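seq:
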Amino acid sequence: MKKICKQTGKEFEVSQWESDFIKRVSPTFGGVKFDFPLPEMCPAERMRSRTILRNEQNLFKNKSALNGEGVISIYADNDYQIYTHDQWWDSNFDPIKYGLDYDFGRGFFEQLKELDLAVPRVNLVQVANENCPYTTGTGYCRNCHLINCSENCEDCIYAKLLQGCRDCIDCAYGYDSELCYQSFYFKDCYNCVHLSYSQNCSDCLFSENLKGCSNCFLCTNLCNKEYHFMNKPVTKEQYEKLKTDCLGSHKQTVKAKEILDKMRMERIYKYANVINCENSTGDFLTNCKNCFDCFDANDSEDCRFLQVGVQTKDVLDCSNMYIKPELSYQVLGTIGTYNVHFSLYVFGSQNVLYSQFCHDCSDILGCVGLRNKHFCIFNRQFSKEEYEELVPRIVRAMQGRGEWGMFFPSNLSPFAYNDTVAYQYLPLSKEDVLSRGFRFREAEERDISVMDFVIADNISDVDESICERILVCEKTGKNYKILPKELRFLKKVKMPVPRICPDERHNIRVAMRNPMRLFDRQCAKCQKTVNSSFAPEDKRTIYCEECYLREVF
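struct:
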């Protein structure tokens, strides 16, 4: 079915699968089914409407609403009631006491905003972490610092979207790996540096698109190789000398990165990063089946328009779904959920509608911050019979106001647009941000310290005193510091002290991936049309799956 996006005015299509799925997940109350309407915005704008509600990278100083003490949070202002993790989970905190009686004379979202502002929210989004006070969007992690979108990790620093990793620093999109540095999209790797788009590798450095390799330096598009330099075999002795001459030196690292950048432009690329998938389209997909227009998903099935999913099944228009979420429509940020729709940050729950920051709940509508509750509406407790009687009345009121089946409006976002994932996925200029009615946060003016010393070229000549120094980013001019744990790691992997700040290193890694969008491209070898994340103007050489496998592996 063809429709016109109410945001852009452009035509988009709602597939039969989407229409059937929306009908299937539409809820029934009191024996009456309340169908969600078909979407009024195109997939990209639907993704934008979700991801403006997620800040996973920027942390700010705030104050606890309970005792006024300073806290680190994802919120830049004090409009919201902020609690620390311990305060929020304290048995004395009862979100039910903030409950509201639904007013049928007012809009649903207007009342939800009031409840949202009243109920304290935890300063960072975390689940079952240990000693990870500066992480958000994380679960089951230990001793990690400034990582996000990650689960089951230990001793990791400055990272995004890691799963099951240990001792990894300045990395992104890493899975089941250990002792990796400045690496991007890697799986089952050990002791690798500046490695990207690679799997099952060890002791490799400054390389890209390796499979099952070890001791490879400045190599691309290799499979099951050992002791290679610039894609050519060398003796073990030659390799060790080449590596020794480079490792630890900032000057040599810069030179190696320049060579690798040139090799990246010249290598052959597969149309998308799709590994062991069946009947699926998108990018960064592994072990997926029947997943279309999906990105950054692993072990998932029957999904469409999904961004970041782990073991996800039967979802449409969802983002950041982790550890077996199932049957969801228009949701952001879950762990282990079932039948959750139009909601944010819901964990271990089922049968949830228009709710946020709820844990281990079921059968709730319009709730905020609940834990272990059932049959609640706007944080008011009801019996099952009362719930079944009241919810249909509220839904009919929402239908009358055109609210039913609409995602949270942008004024429910506590974040400026440029602090959110939406800014990363779908960047807008400041003028466009403001013209759409979003907020834009201006960078704070800060006193910048001037670096009055020279960082030694080689890491072997750097001692612990550098951790007391304030460094200046060569690219942005921002100040940053080297952590003692970071210094120990750098010495272990023999990498020089970074000359740019952590935020800029993050931006460089994120820029390595293509946009979350698919285009029709022709294979440079056989001219077959493929669904690719490489834009038409991208000059890199793109092959279809069959030609790529014949040529590269």
